[in-house]
Amino acid sequence: MDIQSWFSSQGSYADGLLLYSQLPSCNQNLMRSFAKENTSNFLKLKYELKKALLSGQSSIVPKAEKIVAEPKKEPKPEPLLQEIIKQSADHSFEKETMAMYPMELHSTYRQRVSDFYLACELKFQLNSIADDDEDDALKLIIQLDDLWTRIDRAWMILGHWKDHNRIMPTESHEDFSQVSGNKLVMLRDNLQSSISKREKTIESMQERVNASPEDRSLLNLLNRKLEQLEQKKLDLETIRKKLKDE
Prior knowledge:
The chain has helices at about 5-10, 15-20, 30-35, 40-55, 75-90, 105-130, 135-165, 180-210, 215-245. The chain is mostly helical and about 250 residues long.
């Protein structure tokens, strides 16, 4: 299978990853980041394969063999980039509308779409930065990392609703504005410890749910624990941001 066939047949993540691994331009750091299959990684992988296809690498040969490059097409930056973003968005949000979710999650849905388009645009900006312009590249990388973290969280929150008809917390409900710096540090440390313990509890509970999928009470308990964990993480992020701003 070549890249064009993979796109045409809407190939699997595993097949796409194999195609990318055989590209002469394969980035090993990206390969390591692609180890976990999720929606954001699929979109990044699709982008990398689309970029390779548009640069003339329409088929894959082993690296050890001599590679005969096809003539490169004349670049058409703007239309090309917009088309890639549109195709990725169409795949990501296919058969999904905001009306599928309750009002409480509409802002999460809108923000996820907005973050996705912004991440695509920033990725193109990053690709166009000169190799020696490390400061600007680092700023973009930090922004992209933050965006993909937010996108992953949004997918998790929306997926939780679709799978369990339950609303995952989306923001901190604690008011830390009047809490002193020392108290914030103590709260931060306690939350970090609590989150670590809760994650271990959830891991053990998930194994029990997998072993007894018909036990609805156990599944509901697991979902409550997951929602409580997400609330703790949101509170921790709020505290960290407040400590950073002080």
